Amino acid sequence: AMLRGATVVLRRALSSGQGPEPGQVPGSARLEPSLLRFLVCPLSKRPLRYDEATNELINEELGIAYPVIDGIPNMIPEAARTTQKKPPAEGSKQP
Amino acid sequence: AAAGLCPYRALLARRGGALRAFCGSVRGLAAGPETHFGFQRVTEAERREKIYRVFESVAKKYDVMNDSMTLGIHRVWKDILVHKMNPSPGTLLLDVAGGTGDIAFRFINYVRSVQERQLQRKLRHHQNLSWQEIAESYQEDKSKSLGDSQVVVCDINKEMLKVGKQKAQHLGYSEGLSWVLGNAEELPFDDDKFDVYTIAFGIRNVTRIDLALQEAYRVLKPGGRFLCLEFSQVSNSLLSRLYDLYSFQVIPVLGEVIAGDWKSYQYLVESIRRFPPQEEFKAMIEDAGFFKVDYQNLNSGIVAIHSGFKL
């Protein structure tokens, strides 16, 4: 379900180059869709996923996210944050 | 303490390519080997930090300083670079260390004027078009006024990019222009993507020039061109002496008066002296894999444009 959601987000991000999407991130702060053709992770040179909600470029393999600030992606590895994988069924294992 | 080791380190710095490449690739390696910041000896990490701070400090006054230091001649140098590039509509340009957008804007202007001229020529050959047809032809070319040309400006310094983006808004550049915060030594771009790679007055501020050249090679398409505009060595001895006088006596003073920053401009002048001369830089570019590497001196070598091709 999460993968499907991500694909929808990516497709929406690629198609809607014009107006700002209704949501938290204002149009001017979002990543320009045309950049997605070129951008890769500077460390692994592998493709990235643009997360429209958090306005970040995610490298799933390495588990890092590069922020987009004022529409400018910050592709300096030191600036990237690690994406913590949530443990499955949190809180269901009560003693 | 470093004094005694200095000559050894200098030798290591020049010859230790393989070792340094390994060190560089192991991320998180502490300070790194010794290098220079202007005429000071510092570690690689220190150098990167210092240079970042220089440009953070000068960003807002960068353009003004360029005009005053070079008496506006830098504009001509940059014009010559773009003319040499001679981009046709549809060209994809990556401008590295392009912070305030000088090359990017010139590229856009150039491509636009080429488009315009092509349109004029097309219309002149179709004398018997109806008004409807003429109006239509204006429509379709308006939407692609750049003809799918694109320029990506990549810089490591947030402040410089900010200034560049503001300038773009001010001057009305929006289409076909994007901004990325990235490191020339570790570009966030995929292989074989760009038609042209430019770096104007930026490469001497890169700590590992060899890595930047390798990255330039990687991201260029086969047939793509590398163009570097940079301060170089003056061969004429009289001019050289006048140039030294101007550089060391006038420029830092200008820096203090205009930007309130003597030190940054002292660094600038020293970094120019530190940068390898034309032939040596040419060899470095060839080492990265480029072919037909050549250079063109401007103003007797005060500035040089190096060019190479990826085959």
Automatic annotation (TrEMBL), chain A:
Keywords tagged on the record: Mitochondrion, Transit peptide
Keyword Transit peptide: yes
GO cellular component, one term: mitochondrion
Name of the protein in its database record: Protein preY, mitochondrial
HAMAP family noted in UniProt: UPF0434
Gene: Pyurf
Localization per record: Mitochondrion
Signal peptide segment: none
The keyword Mitochondrion appears for this protein: yes
Lineage: Eukaryota, Metazoa, Chordata, Craniata, Vertebrata
InterPro entries referenced in this protein's UniProt entry, alphabetically: Trm112-like (IPR005651)
Family statement: Belongs to the PREY family.
UniProtKB/TrEMBL annotation, chain B:
Signal peptide: none
InterPro entries named among the record's database cross-references: SAM-dependent_MTases_sf, UbiE/COQ5_MeTrFase, UbiE/COQ5_MeTrFase_CS
PANTHER family from the UniProt entry: 2-METHOXY-6-POLYPRENYL-1,4-BENZOQUINOL METHYLASE, MITOCHONDRIAL (PTHR43591:SF24), METHYLTRANSFERASE (PTHR43591)
Keywords: Methyltransferase, S-adenosyl-L-methionine, Transferase, Ubiquinone biosynthesis
Organism: Uria aalge (Common mure)
Subunit description: Component of a multi-subunit COQ enzyme complex, composed of at least COQ3, COQ4, COQ5, COQ6, COQ7 and COQ9. Interacts with PYURF; the interaction is direct, stabilizes COQ5 protein and associates PYURF with COQ enzyme complex.
CDD domains attached to this UniProt entry: AdoMet_MTases
One of the record's GO molecular function terms: 2-methoxy-6-polyprenyl-1,4-benzoquinol methyltransferase activity
Superkingdom assignment: Eukaryota
Protein name, UniProt field: COQ5 protein
Keyword Hydrolase in annotation: no
Gene name linked to the record: Coq5
Task performed by this protein: Methyltransferase required for the conversion of 2-decaprenyl-6-methoxy-1,4-benzoquinol (DDMQH2) to 2-decaprenyl-3-methyl-6-methoxy-1,4-benzoquinol (DMQH2).
Pfam families per the UniProt record, alphabetical: Ubie_methyltran
GO biological process: methylation
